[in-house]
Amino acid sequence: MSASSSNYVNDVLVSADWVEDRLDEFKTDAPDLRLVEVNSPESPEEDFPSRYEDGHIPGAIGFQWDEDLSDAVERDILDKPEFEETVGAAGITEESTVVFYGNGWIPNWFALFAYWEFKYYGHEDVRVLDGGKDYWVNNEYQLTEESTDFSSQEYTARGPFEGIRAYRADVEQALESGLPMVDVRSPEEFTGEIIAPEGLQETAQRGGHIPGASNVPTASVLDDDGTFKSAEELKQLYEEHDVTEDQAVVTYCRVGERSSIAWFVLTELLGFDDVENYDGSWTEWGNSIRAPIERAE
């Protein structure tokens, strides 16, 4: 299923050609293969079919990150019963091979958050379309506006597996212990010049970053076409920031979606054993009274 021969530890990336060769299988009601487009809350490009209803890969199901995979009231991911209901209603079983892809200013921005959430609840066979929707569209693969519906399935989650998720107390402990933390936001967010990317709602009272965190912006793990860099390049990138596999690592961003990409790279592509995604991220930390921060003078 490899997207390329890039020496990744796990075979979790699939190529656009691999997906195209299986379009008929993705369209069937049998739940063996499921293709899922995950949209962000915002449409980043007016001339790009960024919304599911404006064009998607044939056979794909459409998930909206903020509506289908999040609890807006709690500002949290879905709880276990809600996750089971949502996934089962989409025609997915525990045995399904689920391939995610998505749009965004960064390819697969919210698709990787869905991947992380599925892993949190113990889904075993999850894949990602390398390059996401941007690569698919830019290379003129087939799109359709025809929606996809499958028969509902019973779904029982194995998780949650808390070892891949960080809470505020975990971050405080990492801070005290001097463990590496990877802030994947833009340099302007990291320094506190801005609180959120342009066009997105600001969700914190303060700008800056968690003391001691390294800034490794999400786009730095991708090639120009939106596909992931090779394992050798990725390992070197993180080593330059003193992030190595012999330590526990915490990743974070603004609301936990961009940092899920770093979690994916470190865990699934490079094989780090102990990486936690802090999904509360700057929305929580930047609003927390007495939480220490650093910023550019």
UniProtKB/TrEMBL annotation:
Every Rhodanese domain range: 29-145, 175-294
Any Pfam family matching the protein: Rhodanese
Parts forming coiled coils: none
Keyword DNA damage among record annotations: no
Keywords tagged on the record: Repeat, Transferase
PANTHER family recorded: THIOSULFATE SULFURTRANSFERASE
Protein name: Sulfurtransferase
Species this protein is from: Halocatena pleomorpha
